[in-house]
Design goal:
- The strands form two sheets. Strands 2-3-1-4 form a four-stranded antiparallel beta sheet. The chain has a two-stranded antiparallel sheet with strand order 5-6.
- Helix 1 packs antiparallel against helix 3.
- Strand 2 and strand 3 form a beta hairpin.
- It is built from three helices and six strands.
- The chain has a domain of about 80 residues: Alpha-Beta Plaits (2-Layer Sandwich).
- It has about 130 residues and is α+β, with helices and mostly antiparallel strands.
- It is globular and about 40 Å long.
């Protein structure tokens, strides 16, 4: 990747988030299955998660080796439990195990503090 391929992305806003919240960290190895179906499913899951009570945000990256990390942020553990058992999400989980992933790990962590820096706004929020 050279500098011409780099497009800066603004730092996600944490404005309005609680001082303490939860992160669900999903690390996975993609298979060589249908990329179009995977993208449609992944996009739908983000859209659906955004509609869930307690959802705060999501960040996701995937390397050329197929390993990806998606972190979703939630106000509380009850919100995470509700998302985990959402009927459409359950179907996507099953498809993920059958088609999309060689393996995955899910970790849930409580975020006690966060810091934000954005050079474009000279913001350094030391919460």
């Amino acid at each position: 990747m050279d500098e011409a391929d780099f497009e800066p992305v603004a730092a996600p806003s944490k404005e309005g988030w609680p001082d303490r919240y939860f992160a669900v960290i999903f690390t996975a190895q993609r298979t060589l299955s249908d990329e179009d179906m995977y993208s449609l499913t992944a996009d739908r899951m983000v859209e659906l998660a955004q509609q869930q009570p307690g959802f705060l945000g999501v960040e996701s990256v995937r390397g050329e080796d197929g390993i990806g990390i998606t972190v979703s942020y939630w106000a509380d553990r009850a919100s995470i439990r509700s998302w985990r058992v959402n009927i459409e999400h359950l179907a996507a989980q099953q498809m993920g195990r059958q088609e999309f992933y060689s393996w995955y790990h899910i970790r849930v962590a409580e975020v006690l503090a966060h810091r934000t820096f954005d050079a474009d706004t000279s913001l350094d929020d030391g919460r």
